[in-house]
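Action item from last week, closing it out:
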Amino acid sequence: MDAYSAATNIDNLLKSGRTNLLGVLVTILGLIVALTVSMAYYQNFLYAIGAVFTPLFAILFVSIFGLRQRLALGWNFAWWLIGVLAYSWLQRLDFVLGTTVLLLAGLSLGVYLTSLFVRKYPLLETDN
């Protein structure tokens, strides 16, 4: 746990100027949570993060590095939703490389194949 980072963020919100004291309080709170909360809850939380971000990264990687274009937002959202649901289902397979690798490969292929049949749009560019 990065207690100092958490304390700095809290201090930025509260404007108290007591980052070190907040760091100690965050550390104590983290210790209490670690001693009292079952690791199963933490594991489920990590699976939820994987289920949300793995499809998002697959879509971004294919769009930015593969196609250099993007699908319409509706198509991207549909693939993201499919990926979130598939992540939970694929966990039951106990794939040797893990759920994330399997989902990245499958969803990337799906996004790429969809791009062959639907209209693509340019990526948004920023002035640097």
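Closing note: The first strand starts at residue 69 and ends at 71.
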